[in-house]
Amino acid sequence: MQVTRKQERLVRQALDEWQQSGAISTQEYQQLGSTLHRIPFDWKRLSRYAFWIAMVCLIIAAGSIFSDSALVYYLIEIFSVSEIMRVISPALIASALYLWGFKRQRKEAQWHYSTEFILFLGVMFTAIFLWQLGELLDTGSGHIAPLFLIGCVIYGAIGFISRSSLVWLFFLLMLGNWFGAETGYMSGWGAYWLGMNYPIRFVFFGAVLLAGCYFLQNILIHRRLFTMTKIMGLTYLFIALWIMSIFGNYDPDTWYRTSSVNLLPWALLFGVVAVICIYISLKTDDGMLRGFGLTFLGINLYTRFFEYFWDSLHSAIFFFILAVSLILIGRKAEKIWHAVENNSIANKESKSE
C-alpha cells in the first residue's frame, strides 16, 4: 500500500498498539508492516496546492483586470462586436468548460484537481456572463438580486451534477449574495427589513442553511456536498452572530449612541449559541461543530474584553492581562494534553500486564 510519511507513522503506531494489546500476532504485525510502502514525495498534495494557488492567482488577475477600466473596455472591444455577443461569448465558453469537466470526470476520474480547475474556469466565465448580462439589462433600478439568483441556479446545478464542492462553494456564496441583495432591495436599501438589520437576517439565513443541510443530509452526502454546506452554514451563522454582538439590531447612526450594556444581550446570545454548538459536538463527537463553537466562543470573550476594557485600562496593563490570559489557556491545554498522553500510556501498560 502506497502511503505518505505521515500516514505510515500513524499506521505503524496503530500496528504497534494492536501487537502490544494482543489484537494481532507478531507474524501478522510483520506481514501488515511489510505492505506499507512510503511514497518518496507527496505529488498528490503538490498537485492540490498548485491548483489552489493557480485559482488564487486567476482571481487576483481578474480583479486587477476589472479594476483597470481602460483595459476592461479594450478587452470588450476586442472580443465582442455587439452587446449581445458580450453576453453570449462568456456563456458559450463557460458551457464548453463545464462540458469538458463533465467529460473528464466520466472518462478520466484520476485527474481530480485538474478537472476541478477546469470547472473553476467555468465559474469565472459564468461570472463574466452575469456581469455582462447585468450591463445589458440594467434599467437603473438597482435590483441586482435576479442576477445572483441566475448564478445560484447555474452554480447549484453544476456543483450538484459534478459533485464538485468547489463549485458548490460558489453556489452557497452566490446564495448569500442573493439573499442580501434581495432583502436590501425590498427594504429600499435601508437599514431594516421586517425590523431586522443585516446581521440578524444572516443569523436566520445561516440557521436555515444548516437546517436544510441536515434535512437533506443523505442526498448531500451522496453527492459529497454535505461538509461544504455545513461549513458555510456555520460560517454564515457565527460571523453574523459575531457582528450582531458588536452592532446589535441598530442602524449605524443609532449604534454610535448605544452603550455596551444595551449590546450585552446580543453578546450573550452569541455565547449561548457557541456553547450549544460545543455541547452538541461533545454528544455527537463532531469535530467541526466543536471547532466552530470553541473558536467563536473565544472570539466572543476577547471581543467583549476589548469592548469593555480598551478605554478604561492603560494599554500596557490591557495587553499584559491579555498575555497572561493566553498563557493560562495554553498552560491548561498543555495539562490536558499531558493527562491524555499519560492515560494512554497507563492503558497500554495495564493491557500488556
Radius of gyration, CA atoms, in whole angstroms? 26 Å
Helix percent band? over 70%
Distance between the termini: 33 Å
Q: What does the average pLDDT come to?
A: 78
Strand order of the largest sheet: 1-2
Major β-sheet annotation: 2 strands, parallel
* DSSP strand count: 2
Figure out the total of helices: 15
Overview features:
82% helix; flat; transmembrane helix; 353 residues; mainly alpha; single chain; transmembrane; 1% strand
Q: How does this structure look, described?
A:
With 353 residues, the protein is mostly helical. It folds into 4 domains: 40 residues; 148 residues, no CATH class; 108 residues, no CATH class; 35 residues. The protein is 82% helix and 1% strand. The chain is built from 15 helices and 2 strands. A two-stranded parallel sheet has the order 1-2. α9 runs antiparallel to α11. The longest helix is centred in the C-terminal third of the chain and has 38 residues. It is flat and about 75 Å long. The two termini are 33 Å apart. The relative contact order is 0.05. The mean pLDDT is 78.
